[in-house]
Amino acid sequence: GAYRPQSAAILKGAIGKDGKIVAYLNQYAQVESAESDTTFIYDLPAVALQYYEYSSNQLIGAWRSVNSSQQGFYNESFMDELAYAAKADPVEFRRKHLKPDSRHRRVLDEVAKRSGWGTPLPEGVGLGVAIVESFKTIVAHVVEASVKEDGSPRVLKVTTVVDAGSIVSPDSAAAQIEGGTIMGLSAAIGEEITLDKGAVQQSNFTDYPILKLAEAPPVHDIHFIESGAPMGGIGEPGVPPPAPALANALFAI
Q1: Which residues pair with 142 in a beta bridge?
Q2: Is residue 63 within 8 Å of 7, Cβ to Cβ?
Q3: pLDDT at 56 exceeding the cut of 90
Q4: Whether the Cβ atoms of residue 111 and residue 140 lie closer than 8 Å to each other
Q5: pTM: predicted TM-score of the whole model, two decimal places
Q6: Distance (Å, rounded) from C-alpha 120 to C-alpha 105?
Q7: How many H-runs (helices) and E-runs (strands) does the chain carry?
Q8: Backbone phi, then psi, for 183, in 5-degree steps?
Q9: What's the pLDDT tens digit per position in 207-233?
């Protein structure tokens, strides 16, 4: 197989006296630009996305959701950092930066309502939110998570709201979102390729752990919004939100 394109980013933001973002900068380096398939959803006065080409001798190939999972992680985990700096609730902070009549705002409001956002949680349990648009489809996740004794995360529940325009086959669409969610969580929690003198150290699932059934979220609530918008994709948009939503839940804990 081929390696996924490597990517790294530095993000900076400025918050005004009203608690809203006044400037946002995303500087990222990778072998190719992410701008063709990355949608920045927030309505801000000043946004800059700066790409620095990174040269590599690796054979690379696109991963499911291409650049949207990397950029989705950068932007959505950083939004929680900005919310923390502004001393604001992560959902309300995002709402302030989305147009009131937008599809994004409706998806965010629906996932907050369905997940019970704002209700008290047991000690050691956190909620994290992420919303990403990719392939003309908007997907929001709320991940409920805790930390196991060994320090690894345990996902207890995932609430997902999707606006893909219109859904033709609900069961197939739900299966794609479920599969994308598990893939995103698996990559975030346990998957890693390491090299020693140019040779890959992993050889099988014994040393490359993917998410097992026992570690998968016991509850995954998926809701589709029929917005009447042009039909978007469904196979890839479920992948980007899980990792930042999980990171934000752990940050909340």
Answers
A1: 129, 159
A2: no
A3: no
A4: yes
A5: 0.96
A6: 23
A7: 5, 9
A8: -65, -45
A9: 999 999 999 999 999 999 999 999 999
Here the tokens at position 18 are 């009203």
State the DSSP string of 26-90: EEEEESS--GGG-------S-EEEEEEE----S-B-PPTTTTHHHHHHHHHHHHHHHHHHTT--H
82-90: long-range contacts, CB 8 A cutoff, minimum separation 24: 82/13, 82/15, 82/21, 84/251, 85/13, 85/15, 86/15, 86/19, 86/20, 87/19, 88/19, 89/118, 90/128, 90/129, 90/248, 90/252
At 215, which amino acid appears? E
What token pair was written down for 58? 């690796």
| DSSP H or E segment with residue 178 | helix 170-189
Torsion angle of C-alpha atoms 145, 149, 151, 154, degrees rounded to 10? -20
